[in-house]
Known about the structure:
This protein is of the alpha+beta class. About 30% of the residues lie in helices and about 30% in strands.
Amino acid sequence: MKLSELTQYQNITIQCHDNPDPDAIASGFALYRYFKSHRCNVRLIYSGRAKITKVNLTMMIEMFRIPIEYCVSDFGSCDLLITTDCQYRSGNVRFFPAPKVAVIDHHQFCGIDVDYSYIQPNVGSCCTLVWQLFRNEGIDINKDPICATALYYGLYCDTNQFSELYHPLDRDMRDALAFDQAAVVRLSNSNLSLSELGIAAQAMNDFTFDSELRLAIVQVQPCDPNILGLISDFLIQVDRVDICIAFNETYTGYKLSIRSCIKETKASELAEYITDEVGFGGGHRNKAGGFIGKDEYSAKYGELRMMLFLRKKLMEYSGECEILRAGIDKISVEGLKRYRKKRIPVGVVFCKDFVTTSTPMLVRTLEGDIDFNASADTCIMVGVSGDIVPISMDKFKETYDMCSARSKITSEYRPTIKNLRSGETFDLADHIRSCISRGSEYVYIKPIESSVKIFTVWDANNYIRGTKGDYIAIRENDLSDFYIVEKELFRKTYERADQEEAN
Length: 503
Ligand SMILES: [Mn+2]
C-alpha cells in the first residue's frame, strides 16, 4: 500500500482505536497532516467509553494542536476510512460503516480483509509504519518537526521508553527523527495519574517470588502499558531478584515487561522464548518486552493461568543449561566426528570500503544490532542465513577465496552498516562480494542434548544460546575455540571431512 494511492479520495476520516494511546494518536495525526497537505478533506476521530482525560494525552493534543474529535455515534460520511493502530471491525475500535477502508496497524492480523492494508505485527509502534510509508513516498518527515516529535513520542510510549525495541525499523526511526527534546521530556513526565500510582503500589505488594529461580512475577491490574515497565524496573533492583516479569491483561492478549540483571540470561532472549508461537517479543540484554495473543495462547495452552504458564516457561528455560566460555573452557572431542565447511558461496563485506582507521561500526540486521571496532583490516562475513560475524583480513585470506557467484540477502529487512563516528549509514547488500571457503578448516561437531550457552571470544559478556538439535563446532587446531551452529545452518553449510569415514 502506498499513501499516494489514497489521495484519490476527497473525504478521508482517520480513526484511532477506542481510548487511544499516544501511538494511535500520533500515527493518525501524521497521516492527517499528509492528507491535509494533499488538499483532502480530512478528519481525525476516536471513540470509546469516555473522552480523553489522561494528562500526557491532553498535553500532547494541546502541544501539537491535534484536531482530534470524539465521536460516539455517527461522524458523518467519508469516501475512505483509515484505522490506525487497530484493525477495522475488531473489538477495540468502534464500528463505523464506510465505502472504502484502509488499515495501518502493528498488531496481529485479525482476519478481516479491507480495501487497503499495511500491517506489520512485529514492529514496535504504528508510528514506525507511518514513518515507513512517508519514506516510501520520499518525504523527509524532519521538515515537519511537530510530526517528527509526535511519531517519536508514539514509539517511545509503545516500547517502554525504547527499552523494549525489537525491530530494526524501530531503531532506524528513533535514530532518524529530529524531535523536540523539551516536548518529549515534558510529555514523559506527565505519565502517571494518582490512581495509576495506586495500581503500581498494589502490584508491588502482590509479587510472587521464587527463591530458587531468583525470579519475581507480578500481575498488574489493567493499566497503561508503560506502568508495567516502571514496575519491572523497580523490582529488578531488589538484591535477591535476578529476573522479573510484570504483566497484565489487555483486550487482545497479555503484555509483558521483562528484566534481567545477570549476564547468564538475556532479557531479550527470554522474551522471545516465552512468546514463541503465541506472540512476539524481544528487546535488549537487560530489558525486554513482549505480547501474547489471547487466541494463540488459548489454542495452545487452553485454560492455563498466565501466572502458572510464566513459571513453567521459566523453569523450562533455566533447567539444565550448560554454560561454556570460549577461550577458557575446553571440550573433549573424544568420539566426535570431523567436519568442514561446504564449499558454497557466502558474502563478505570489506570494511575498507567505509573506514581507514579504527572506527566504531554498527551492523543492524533483523536479528539485532552488532557493534564492534572496525579497521580497514576488518571483514564482515555474511552467512547464507544473513548471519553476521566480523573477522580479520588475515583470517579471511587464510580461509576463503573470492569467487564470482552472486550472493544475496533474502530477509524482510535490509541490513545496514553505520559509522558511529560520522553517522553515515550504508546498505550492507550494496557492498557484499562473494567468496568461498577453501575447505581447509576442520571442526569437531557435537550435537547439543538440551541447551548450552556459549560466551564467545570476541565478547565475554555476551552469550549465544543453542538448544536441542543445534551443534557445537570445535576448531580442530584450538579446542578452546568453539561456537554454536544452528541446526538448519549446519545442514546447509557443513559436510563430513572424510568420505570413507562417512560411509
Ligand atoms: Mn501501538
